[in-house]
Amino acid sequence: MRTLTAQDIDDLAVGAWILGTGGGGDPSLNLLSVHAGLDAGTRFDLIEPAELDDDAQVAVVSTMGAPMVMAERLQDTRDVARAVEVMADYLGRGFDAVMATEIGGSNSLQPFAAALHLGLPIVDADAMGRAYPEAQMTSFAVGDLQPWPLSLVDPRGVESVVSHVPTWKWMERASRALTIELGSMAATCKAPRSGREVKEWSVHGSVTLSISLGEVVRRAKVEHRDPVAAVCDAHRGRVLLRAKLVDVNRRTTGGFLRGVARLQGLDDDTGRSATLEFQNEWSVARVAEPGDPPGGEGRVVVTVPHLICLLDLVSGEAVGTETARYGQRVALVAFEAPELFTTPRALEFVGPRAFGHDLDVVNPFGGDSQ
Amino acid sequence: MSRRIGIDVGGTNTDAAVVEMGGDRPVVVAAHKTPTTLDVLSGVTAALAEVPTDGVEVVVIGTTQFTNAVVQRRSLNKVGFIRLGYPAGTSLRPLVGWPTDLASVIDGGHHLVTGGLDYDGRDFMPLDEAAVTEAARRFADRGIDAIVITGSFSPIDARQEERAAELVLAAHPSARLTLSHRLGRLGLLERENAAALNASLVELAATVVSAFSAVVRAAGLGGNTRLFLSQNDGTLLSLDDAAAYPVLTFASGPTNSMRGAALLGGVSDGIVVDVGGTTADFGALVTGYPRQANAAVDVGGVRTLFRLPDLESIGLGGGSRLRKGASGITIGPDSVGQALLTEALAFGGLEATLTDAALASGRLTIPDIPPPALPPDLDPDAILTVAARMIGDGADRMKLASGNVPLVAVGGGAYAVPDVLDGFDPIVRPEHASVANAVGAALAEVSGEVDQVFHDLGRDGAIEAATALAIERVEAAGAARGSAEVTDVEDLPLAYVPGDARRVRVRVIGRLA
């Protein structure tokens, strides 16, 4: 067990934004709420999955909805805690710990919002290892664990429990419909997990990974070192291109932000170029070499489930699909996905075809293929 | 058109320019620079004393006083907050995340009131009118007049903020209200922060506005002379509006410089670079006005969403220090700054600066100053090549698409901008660029904006209705009849609202009558 400091939580927010792989929402408002709690003397204890008893009960939290609504309604940390309480009441049994569904972006701080009020330890794990656009894109779904029940809370006193669904995809559809009706924002507590399930089917160490990514970026800035190189050195990332963003084409369809960004290589990468497709998060990157026939799309260099990140060349911080704009100097960086997302079954949930791309997985680190 | 005087009160200098329009370019009849004084007013008086005021019918003042008051935490009044959005948002209360020294100066207490809207314009909760009245009474009892009202999703529909304003004024007649939807876009906390900064300045604003009027009258400008302040977007702000919304003057300095550069250079769309002593500042012109930033802006340590010009700075200016390192020549980001005339090699000092390189290469000549000898590892032409690349990169960041656009170079260090730069054509170097800020202030136009929800008119009908209303507003604000041109249209259908509801924003700009 480790007690987290205010600095750890600041670093976590920076690292989680990187693991957001372009989406997941800016964690800054959640960070402010958590800081307000810290000032009041709250302690956040981080435990490893191995510290959980097999029959321990773990609450899995996230807030569903649109970033615009979160910025306007300002989430109350009590609502996240309330979602956990509603679930505990429904189950007739309390929780021993809380964890995030999604470490990428603003949801990384949701367990902290719950812990502020409930005093539960936070598990150093999540169910995505990054951000994904849909709620069924989790390690728990890959593990074929039970998708129900789910509790969902709105600050106006609307509290509901989805007590049964036939599949994970149905849980996504039912909970999203409720969320939209509540103004496109709701705190949720997903299907509870046993200690054993967390050990077997979660992405371990993702909270400490986030903290450590944020810390590397912070230190590199202070020491005037290249933050992108520092992040890659520390976490086995690979820089695929250093480039300028020359075009971002966005459209909103089916509740998702989709589109394509184009990069033009800089310095040693002059003459190379890249295109990045996104659905909330970056999903496929192609790179064209100087000798390639003109007009070609280039070669696919990395796809989901592997992590595709754009990092600002100067600050090292992530560039999101909502905020990316012409002229930004960025590094296209890849990180390898956790192993449990690279099995054939996992790829049905999080591979390129789950995002509508007729492509096989490409892993720049060489490992798997379909 | 008649003659106008523009006065720009900057951190260092107060500049005045008397301007007439001659054809399509402004004619600078007279200009004067004088040091900015601590009390501001005597500097303005001194500047006015040095330029001819005959025939001047309009005076426009751009000032940094309100920005400085926030940065220096002085002359600020207490602010009371009423937020319409309860039961959401209680963990992020007003002033959360503010620097504690600033928060403690202005915090006059807050009330979180049941109310607010959802994204589709429906009530999040019906407004608790009794609670608004009660909050107003409490502020009145405690002598707090400056009050901010912020409702969730008020930029989409301001009805709750406006209703709350009526209730507050009924219970607290001396209240001076700042409604958040007047100042910002979506992002409640940032909008509330902007409104709070504004409210903290209302007492100072009342004083400043009446003092400016007095100074202008004292300068012998008659009763026919109209006085305005210039606002963030480069348009005119009436004295009444300036007293109510002083925060709208926050970025008038850089805006006026860019507007002036555009007018003097005859460029309406392109990039402006202002190379000073320490930094080069880049901005983009869209139809003669600075492009506005889309992101959160930090003012005095407070996160806001003002509509401010989109600017980027790099540490390159006439006083930038030069070094030869392992990876080649570097320029800046440190600078000798205001000590250029004593510390640079050319002026007998010991520091090699960008000015020295320009003199040594022959790019820049200054009467009676011979080209200095640079250390052997600092080749002047190589240095200017590095400077040109830095400027090219900086200007390129402001572009929204590839292809050539005009680049207007102003400022004392504009010599560092090369005559040929990839991606930019032509490179324009206007005359009188040193008083571009005062020229920009003098030639400010009138703007009018409508941002509201229209029902059952269809897309075209709603835009038409909004445009007519914006033109009505701009003419009421002093624009010549028929001169208004639409500069911006945005529309957003609101799903889930019964009937056809659509939020339309239209902005028009007209010539001062």
Which key features would you list for this structure?
heterodimer, A: 370 residues, alpha+beta, six-stranded mixed β-sheet, 11 helices, B: 513 residues, alpha/beta, 14 helices, 23 strands, 29% strand, globular
Description:
- The complex is a heterodimer of chains A (370) and B (513).
- In chain A, the strands form 4 sheets. A 7-stranded antiparallel sheet of chain A has the order 16-15-14-13-12-18-17. In chain A, strands 3, 4, 7, 8, 9 and 10 form a 6-stranded mixed sheet that branches.
- Chain A has 370 residues and is of the alpha+beta class.
- In chain A, strand 14 and strand 15 (281-288) form a beta hairpin.
- In chain A, helix 9 (206-222) runs antiparallel to helix 10.
- Chain A has helices at residues 6-19, 28-39, 67-73, 77-91, 110-118, 139-142, 168-181, 195-201, 206-222, 227-235, 344-350, and strands spanning 2-4, 44-47, 57-65, 97-100, 122-123, 125-126, 150-153, 159-162, 185-189, 193-194, 203-204, 238-253, 256-265, 273-279, 281-288, 299-303, 307-312, 329-335.
- The radius of gyration of chain A is 20 Å and the shape is globular.
- With 513 residues, chain B is an alpha/beta fold.
- Chain B contains 14 helices and 23 strands.
- Chain B has helices at 41-49, 65-72, 100-106, 129-141, 159-171, 188-199, 202-218, 239-244, 252-265, 340-343, 354-361, 380-398, 436-442, 458-476; strands at residues 3-9, 13-22, 25-35, 56-63, 79-86, 107-114, 146-151, 176-179, 226-230, 236-237, 270-275, 280-286, 289-290, 297-299, 302-304, 311-314, 320-325, 328-335, 405-410, 424-428, 446-455, 485-493, 501-510.
- In chain B, strands 3-2-1-4-9-10 form a 6-stranded mixed sheet, sandwiched between helices. In chain B, strands 11, 12, 13, 16, 19 and 20 form a 6-stranded mixed sheet that branches. A 4-stranded parallel sheet of chain B has the order 6-5-7-8, sandwiched between helices.
- In chain B, helix 1 packs parallel to helix 7, helix 4 packs across helix 5 (159-171) and helix 11 (354-361) crosses helix 12.
- Chain B starts with a strand and ends with a strand.
- The interface between A and B is medium-sized, with 32 and 30 residues.
